[in-house]
Amino acid sequence: IPGYGDSPPVDMVVTAQGRRAFLDHVLQELNMRRPVLVSPSMSGRFALPFLLAHGDQLAGFVPIAPVGTKDYTAEQYQRVQTPTLILYGDSDTRLAPQALQNLQHLPEHRVAVLAGAGHACYLDKPEDFHRALLGFLRQLK
């Protein structure tokens, strides 16, 4: 969590640019090479700016009804070539439809909908979630 321990100060994550830099810093510190970024809900504020600026550093992207999708244009999404699995629960009628409407502009996307799952679909239907996630991971280069 920013601002605690040895993490960067809180003011670093106030802007999209700062959140992008923070996530970049975390991935560098962890020495991660071409990870798959899984982004549920509020983490979209970090993941989306990173995806749009550095998507080529990711092997894949898995947004799970992330916040902030409306902050970017269809044209910005269309420039991203990162393989993407848009995942959400069909009972999430508030955030998931908005996220899908925006994220469907990513050219390398596919969609997985978990029946009977809400916003935290990975908690509601963990087996279905893992099946969809593992299927996506197996198809990545």
UniProtKB/TrEMBL annotation:
<feature type="domain" description="AB hydrolase-1">
    <location>
        <begin position="71"/>
        <end position="126"/>
    </location>
</feature>
<comment type="similarity">
    <text>Belongs to the AB hydrolase superfamily. ABHD14 family.</text>
</comment>
<dbReference type="GO" id="GO:0005737">
    <property type="term" value="C:cytoplasm"/>
</dbReference>
<keyword id="KW-0963">Cytoplasm</keyword>
<dbReference type="Pfam" id="PF00561">
    <property type="entry name" value="Abhydrolase_1"/>
</dbReference>
<dbReference type="InterPro" id="IPR000073">
    <property type="entry name" value="AB_hydrolase_1"/>
</dbReference>
<protein>
    <submittedName>
        <fullName>ABHEA protein</fullName>
    </submittedName>
</protein>
<dbReference type="InterPro" id="IPR029058">
    <property type="entry name" value="AB_hydrolase_fold"/>
</dbReference>
